[in-house]
Amino acid sequence: MEHLAVTAGPCEFDPQCVVGRKYRPDCEPVKLGTGARIRAGTVIYADVQAGNYFQTGHNVVIREHTICGNHVSVGTNCIIEGNVVIGDFVKLIANCYIPTHVTIGNRVFLGPSVTLTNDRYPLKMRDEYRPDGPIIEDYVTLGAGVIVCPGVRIGHHSFVAAGAVVTKDVPPYTLAIGVPAELRPLTNQLNEPNMALSWRRFLHA
């Protein structure tokens, strides 16, 4: 295990994980809050910061200049390409792909195999490449297999159904369904805040 990290308290590191992979000579160690759990196969590059109770599944890759808040869970086989900001109480389930220049708010859930994108014209000739990742606001849920196109903003408290392809902004409190996603008013059942059972004791402490 390569280990180049500064922690604020006790953390667990499985064998066969890499924490603080150097990508240039002057990069900074990974900074982790207390209670982190890093599982085997994870590679976290230098210049990454994560708050308390951060955890990864197996075979996760997190590139440089990623900032995560408290209680962030990054599931098995997820890839975060760097230059990403993630808020508090966020769950990324297995096989999610997060490109550069993405912002994810608080209390967000990304189901398995969610794909966010940041390039409208991959590999096409242009004068300058300007990545434009989506913005996922607070209390958003993205179902399994959702694809979000570059530059799209998903408004707070919205719910995107499994398999949807989101090509335009989703207003707050909206249900998005289909390919391309059809926008509907959010039902009362889907309007409850994202709340994992394991988070409750921390919110009322």
Please write out the topology.
Elements: E1 2-3, E2 5-7, E3 12-13, E4 18-21, E5 30-32, E6 37-38, E7 43-45, E8 49-50, E9 55-56, E10 61-62, E11 66-68, E12 72-74, E13 79-80, E14 84-86, E15 90-92, E16 97-98, E17 102-104, E18 109-110, E19 115-116, E20 135-136, E21 141-142, E22 147-148, E23 153-154, E24 159-160, E25 165-166, E26 174-177, E27 182-185, H1 200-203
Parallel strand pairs: 1-4, 2-5, 3-6, 4-7, 5-8, 7-10, 8-11, 9-12, 10-13, 11-14, 12-15, 13-16, 14-17, 15-18, 17-20, 18-21, 19-22, 20-23, 21-24, 22-25, 24-26
Antiparallel strand pairs: 26-27
Q: How many β strands by DSSP?
A: 27
Low-confidence stretches: none
How much strand content do the residues show? 25-35%
How many DSSP helices? 1
Instruction: Give the biggest sheet.
Output: 8 strands, parallel
- CATH 4th-level superfamily of the largest domain: Hexapeptide repeat proteins
Strand order of the largest sheet: 2-5-8-11-14-17-20-23
Overall number of domains: 2
- What class do helices, strands and sheet pairing give? mainly beta
Structure commentary:
This protein has one helix and 27 strands. With 205 residues, it is mainly β. It has two domains: 84 residues, no CATH class; 98 residues, Hexapeptide repeat proteins (UDP N-Acetylglucosamine Acyltransferase, domain 1). The chain has an eight-stranded parallel β-sheet with strand order 2-5-8-11-14-17-20-23, with no helix packed on it. It has an eight-stranded mixed β-sheet with strand order 9-12-15-18-21-24-26-27, with no helix packed on it. Strands 1-4-7-10-13-16 form a six-stranded parallel β-sheet, with no helix packed on it. The mean pLDDT is 93.
